[in-house]
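Module 6 notes. Inverse folding takes a fixed backbone as the condition and produces residue identities as the prediction. Think of it as a translation problem where the source language is geometry and the target language is the twenty amino acids. Below is one complete input and output pair. Work through it position by position during the lab.
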């Protein structure tokens, strides 16, 4: 079973990129972030024609998340992160696919910091930590994947010097990440590639893609039930090299079949 996460940076603008990726890589589950489209603007027909069922939660101009499943319809569990009923930003979606609970998240960027956007980032992170605590020891396998907007360590960025004031590298952001992992979650990429620089995001400035000046901010975390099933993990960097591509590349894991996390 292959599960991937991909910040598409506009699902309508980059639909052709998404469909090419789905056709070539054929993930069984694909979590999408930053749809930048209302619910009625989501290209469900094109995605269905590509062989995928989908659940999604859109939002005008920004945010938006979706979970796609190859050859089947994901079973929606929740459409928002618990903890703040007043929060209307579309940043979390949870569904079951083949017995795996899949949480798709788009954690707030938090810039500029300090300020209200960074405060919102940390508050959202606290809600994620609280919800994750209910899932890490669940009897069923769980993966929390998406754009976390956190660079976990200096090893996860090409050069941290020019990013020191960015919300993605702040001590508070990294402390939240560490508290999340400390619950017992497995960072799939680092578990299998502990000593290799791996990036998932290259911004559009200063030839960062061409120079491989990237950051690792897209993560897949596995709960205790699912972690033993991890077999492979990587990044489909070829997608970032496409013309007018998203600034993210799809990040993926492969799990033992047919029933991840089960013995």
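Target side of the pair, the amino acids:
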């Amino acid at each position: 079973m292959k599960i991937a996460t991909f910040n598409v940076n506009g699902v309508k603008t980059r639909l052709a990129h998404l469909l090419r990726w789905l056709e070539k890589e054929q993930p069984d589950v694909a979590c999408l972030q930053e749809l930048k489209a209302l619910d009625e603007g989501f290209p469900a027909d094109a995605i269905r024609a590509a062989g995928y069922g989908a659940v999604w939660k859109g939002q005008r101009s920004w945010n938006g998340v979706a979970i796609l499943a190859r050859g089947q319809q994901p079973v929606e569990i929740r459409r928002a992160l618990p903890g703040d009923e007043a929060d209307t930003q579309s940043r979390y979606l949870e569904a079951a696919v083949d017995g795996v609970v899949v949480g798709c998240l788009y954690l707030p960027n938090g810039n500029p910091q300090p300020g209200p956007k960074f405060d919102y980032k940390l508050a959202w992170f606290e809600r994620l930590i609280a919800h994750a605590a209910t899932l890490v020891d669940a009897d069923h396998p769980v993966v929390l994947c998406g754009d976390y907007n956190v660079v976990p360590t200096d090893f996860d960025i090409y050069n941290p010097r020019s990013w020191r004031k960015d919300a993605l590298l702040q001590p508070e952001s990294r402390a939240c990440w560490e508290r999340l992992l400390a619950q017992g979650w497995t960072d799939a990429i680092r578990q299998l590639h502990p000593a290799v620089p791996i990036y998932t995001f290259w911004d559009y400035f200063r030839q960062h893609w061409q120079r491989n000046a990237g950051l690792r901010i897209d993560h897949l975390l596995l709960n205790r039930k699912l972690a033993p099933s991890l077999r492979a993990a990587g990044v489909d960097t070829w997608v970032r090299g496409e013309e007018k591509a998203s600034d993210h590349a799809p990040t993926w894991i492969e799990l033992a079949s047919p029933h991840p996390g089960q013995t």
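Reference fact for the lab report: Residues 116-133 form the longest helix (18 residues).
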